[in-house]
Amino acid sequence: MLDGCMPWSADMAARYRRRGWWEGITIPQLLERSAARHPGKTALVSGELRLSYADLVTGSRRLACGFLAAGIEAQDRVVLQLPNGPDFVLTYFALTRIGAIPVTALRAHRHSEIRHFLKASGATAYVIPDRLGNFDYRDMATEVRRDAPALRLVFVAGVPGPDQIDLRAMIAASPDDAEIERWLAEVRPDPGEVATMLLSGGTTSLSKLIPRTHDDYVLNARLCGRAGGFGEDTVFMAILPLGHNYNLASPGMLGCFYYGGTVVLAPSGDAAEVFPLVQRERVSVIAAAVPLISNWLNSPVPEEYDLLSLRVIQNGGARLAPELRARLRQRFGCAPQEIYGTAEGLINMVPLDAAEDMLLCSSGVPVCADDEIKVLDDDGNEVPDGEPGELVTRGPYTIQGYYRAPEKQAEAFTPDGFYRMGDIVRKQGRHIFTEGRRKDLINRCGEKINCEEVENLIFGHPKVKAVTLVAMPDSVFGEKACAFVMLKEGKALEFDELINFLRAQKIASFKLPERLEVVAEFPLSPVGKVLKRSLREMIAARLEREAAGAAA
């Protein structure tokens, strides 16, 4: 196991192998196995480009040799920040083929987050697009490189900048097939080694790194794909980032490839782009989120297209209300499937054949029979079914610890090795019903906003005396960030001024507050602690009054 990672105990590992959970194959072998069954079948659709399973294997193997020639070695960490597309897919499989470890950043991440990922992982390489929209990733790479001494190589999908390497040219320049075989024959990753590092929402200022092994992540994809009813006839549409656990392996791209299906990449979540693609490609499963589903339900566009192929619309990131699940089923004639879980491991999915009340209300059941779950009270005692408490879990695809974060073990894990989900739930048998979170995070439709991180940045504004960031309810995104601010004497602060200040700090746009409330003081507990719950109640009541006034 990579130094800095916490392995499963020998007894647990032996049990998981004995019970067949860990198959002893790597992530690239997952793809290669499906390619061996039907090499000519379309595996990936991106715009007008169609790549077969054989194309993906060949392209990723060529790129793997290019990475080896550039000096990437097994267990090197590589920050991977590419948008959805063939470049991401080929790069992900190429890196994992040589035992390098992709650290999956999102396209929205900017200087602050990327610096942290590079330093925390000790990454030796960084893979980026040249530019998306009006943002130039090459310039950002040049800037962050100064603060990342381990970073040696920057690969660009597009036109590279100075001291950067053309990613796509590496495929064309790779050796012939016989030479590729010789190169790769010497590189055989261990299925028990770390394959991928995902990003945690975290309770500290920035994300922690989540090490997932080949063994556990293949299992994650396999079981989530099974729960989603995936098979060779599955045509899976990905809209949200492939670098996120949901669309990567829960069940996502890897779940689809495990079962030999076809992945279709949508250019956006706009109904005018999604539903023509559903008709054209005969899409059977869409991985969606609350804002997308809400917009589709209120759009006339779907009526214009043949959606008979559509079997399941999955929802992840934030809970989809029962009434919206019912409307989704009625409108599209397909099953709504709620998915609730964590990049650290445990995934719960509502069975497609679940009873009506569970289909519409449950947050799902663990996808693995060996997922151990408990609901605990504040004293660590297990509560009876139906009582609320914190969900804790351990199992064959739930991590044992974060990468190089021993100080977080006592906080994130129970003494007997259960991971603390940080969510308040009720349990009915194996069904989970989510009710909220213990952690100080804002869940903006699956994107986790760490309050402490944003508060620390706002504190840097010269007019700000004190700040507290809290969640405010939103009918589309579930939650948005509201900044309560106390100002220095004689100062005034407008919302736009605050946002411009934060943008200059170069943080991801989804973390920006979407409302500013200037107050004279914060509600405090007897020991002087800010009562965030009171502030959340205050802004929720204010929003309700504003909505009532607008309706009148």
Structure, described:
The chain is an alpha/beta fold and 552 residues long. The chain contains 19 helices and 27 strands. The chain starts with 9 loop residues before the first helix and ends with a helix. The mean pLDDT is 94.
- The 3D shape can be described as globular
For the termini, the CA-CA separation is 63 Å
Mean pLDDT: 94
Structural class: alpha/beta
Largest sheet: 9 strands, mixed
Annotation field: number of helices: 19
- Strand tally: 27
* Poorly predicted regions: none
Helicity, as a percent range: 25-40%
Give the strand order, joined by hyphens, for the main sheet.
2-1-13-12-14-15-16-17-18
Radius of gyration: 23 Å
Strand content: 15-25%
Q: What are the key terms here?
A:
single chain, alpha/beta, 9-stranded mixed β-sheet, 5-stranded parallel β-sheet, 19 helices
Topology:
Blueprint: H1 10-18, H2 27-37, E1 42-46, E2 49-52, H3 53-70, E3 77-80, H4 86-97, E4 101-104, H5 111-121, E5 125-129, E6 131-132, E7 135-136, H6 137-145, E8 153-157, E9 165-166, H7 167-172, H8 177-185, E10 194-199, E11 209-213, H9 214-227, E12 235-238, H10 245-249, H11 252-258, E13 262-265, H12 271-281, E14 285-288, H13 290-297, E15 312-315, H14 322-332, E16 335-341, E17 347-349, H15 356-361, E18 365-366, E19 372-376, E20 389-394, H16 409-412, E21 419-428, E22 431-437, E23 441-444, E24 447-450, H17 451-459, E25 464-474, E26 478-487, H18 495-503, E27 515-518, H19 532-551
Parallel strand pairs: 1-13, 3-4, 3-5, 5-8, 8-9, 12-13, 12-14, 14-15, 15-16, 26-27
Antiparallel strand pairs: 1-2, 6-7, 10-11, 16-17, 17-18, 19-20, 20-21, 21-22, 23-24, 25-26
